[in-house]
Structures are given as structure tokens and as C-alpha cells.
Specification:
Length: 181
């Protein structure tokens, strides 16, 4: 009967030699796969146009009084921004914000703790992000909100409303966002 010892030794030797080769081949395949895969469509510059609003913020009114706090985070694989608002008087709300490649516009859907909602669309206008409510048949009321990054790192949010289909506007909120420590 032939000894199996040489076959076992050969298999052990081959295993010691093949393990590093197999590991190296796997690593090379993974490295190539990560290079060969296209970037996420949500990494395109137009998807990153509202990133200046990301963060945790203390929000104040023009007279310095506290308006509330806000947290804006990336969600859905970096394809959306989620806002969590907590007003100083207890008012709460959440918005979902995203860039739609199909219509090349930014969208926001807001819902507050009272069940009120707001739908806005728009995009960058220079340094500002400007979103507005689309016209609704028979309703002359419009909303328009602009977020403007400031030189000191803060962000101004200016919300206006119109009762005459946009002919005239009045400010309903003017907030200064300062990053929380």
C-alpha cells in the first residue's frame, strides 16, 4: 500500500503557497472592482449643491432671539438631505430634500407636527438655494425660501409668502443658522 504522506505534504505545501496568492488575487480583484465601478450618481455636483446646509445649527431671529435648532443630515445613500427642526416654542417639523436628475430641480417636502405640509421646487441661483411652491390652480398663495451661505460659515434662511401669485412678497421668517459646537 502506497503511503499518502507525500500527497499530504504536497497539499500542505501547495496550501501554504496558494493562500497568499489567493488572498493577493482577491485583493487585486476588489481593488480593480472599486476602480472600475462608476461613481454614485448622487456624487455629481448638482446633487451636492445644498450640502452647505448640512450640520447641526442654532437658529436665531434678526433681533437675536432663539428661533430653534435644526439638524440636516445626508440620507438615502447621499441622495437626500433630511431636516429635523425643533422650534424654541415647541414647533417641530421634518423635510426631505433631493435633486431630481429627470427635471434638473431640487425638491423639498415639509411636514410639521400639526400635520401641515409644504412642497417646494427650485435650485441654485448664484450662491443661494431658492425653492418655491409651484402654482396651484385657483390658489394665489405662494411660498419662497432662500438659503444663503454667509462668509462667516452661517446660513441665512429667508422665507417669504405672497397672496397675489407672486406679484408682491412679505417676509414670514428670517433666520440665521450658526453651527452648533
Amino acid at each position: 500500500m502506497a503511503s499518502t504522506r507525500p500527497a499530504v505534504e504536497a497539499a500542505a505545501w501547495a496550501g501554504r503557497w496558494l493562500r497568499p496568492v489567493a488572498v493577493g488575487a482577491c485583493l487585486a480583484t476588489l481593488a480593480f472592482a472599486s476602480i472600475a465601478q462608476p461613481a454614485s450618481p448622487c456624487d455629481a455636483p448638482e446633487h451636492r449643491a445644498f450640502d452647505f446646509w448640512l450640520g447641526r445649527w442654532d437658529v436665531s431671529l434678526p433681533d437675536g432671539r432663539a428661533a430653534g435648532t435644526n439638524r440636516i443630515e445626508l440620507a438615502a445613500g447621499r441622495c437626500a438631505l433630511v431636516e429635523q427642526w425643533q422650534g424654541a416654542a415647541g414647533y417641530v417639523g421634518t423635510s426631505l430634500n433631493w435633486y431630481d436628475s429627470a427635471d434638473r430641480r431640487w425638491h423639498q417636502v415639509w411636514i410639521d407636527g400639526r400635520g401641515d405640509s409644504l412642497v417646494l421646487v427650485g435650485g441654485r441661483e448664484g450662491e443661494r438655494m431658492v425653492l418655491a411652491s409651484p402654482p396651484m390652480p385657483g390658489d394665489p398663495t405662494r411660498q419662497r425660501i432662500a438659503w444663503t451661505p454667509q462668509a462667516d460659515g452661517s446660513v441665512r434662511q429667508h422665507w417669504e409668502t405672497s397672496d397675489d401669485a407672486g406679484a408682491t412678497w412679505r417676509t414670514v421668517f428670517d433666520g440665521r443658522y450658526v453651527r452648533r459646537p
